Amino acid sequence: MSGMQVTGIMNALKKVTSQMLKEGELVAAETAAEMERYAKTHKQWQRRTGHAEDCLVGAYSASAKSIRADIRQDMFGISGKEYGYYLEKAERFHGKYAILEETRNCHADMFFSGLE
């Protein structure tokens, strides 16, 4: 194989890799947006101040090493301590206000099928 052939193959691989990353990032962005919509419409609590619902955020990231989509609740109380996790996991609520894990599980197939 000549040097020109190797260079051509390497350039083609770079182009394919770049396209795959762009498409993977698009899948992650769409999944994150859908997870945010789902969490906000399927939550089990009543809207009072709107903070809990407004802080449900779908996010994504993509790099050469990983592509991810997630849902989180970025809520911090007056003390500065994160309490979105508390709403999700506190034993006293018995899962009544949990939405993050359900959302993630409902959208896992969408994400992995899209990447496939």
Question: What's the SSE blueprint?
Answer:
Elements (H helix, E strand, L loop, with lengths): L2 H40 L8 H4 L1 E7 L4 E7 L10 H6 L10 H16 L1
Antiparallel strand pairs: 1-2
Helix pairs in contact: 1-4
The level of helicity is 55-70%
Total number of beta strands: 2
Structural class: alpha+beta
Order of helices and strands: HHEEHH
Inertia-based shape: elongated
Point out poorly predicted stretches: none
Largest sheet: 2 strands, antiparallel
Based on CA atoms alone, the radius of gyration comes out at: 20 Å
Report how far apart the termini are. Answer: 32 Å
Order of strands across the widest beta sheet? 1-2
Assess the beta-strand content as a share of residues.
5-15%
Mean pLDDT: 84
Describe the model.
The protein has 116 residues and is of the alpha+beta class. It has helices spanning 3-42, 51-54, 84-89, 100-115; strands at residues 56-62, 67-73. It has a two-stranded antiparallel ribbon. Strand 1 and strand 2 form a beta hairpin. Helix 1 runs antiparallel to helix 4. The longest helix has 40 residues, at 3-42. The radius of gyration is 20 Å and the shape is elongated. The mean pLDDT is 84.
Properties at a glance:
2 strands; two-stranded antiparallel sheet; alpha+beta; 116 residues
Brief sketch in words of this structure:
The protein has four helices and two strands; from the N terminus they run ααββαα. By secondary structure, the chain is α+β, with helices and mostly antiparallel strands. The longest helix is centred in the first third of the chain and has 40 residues.
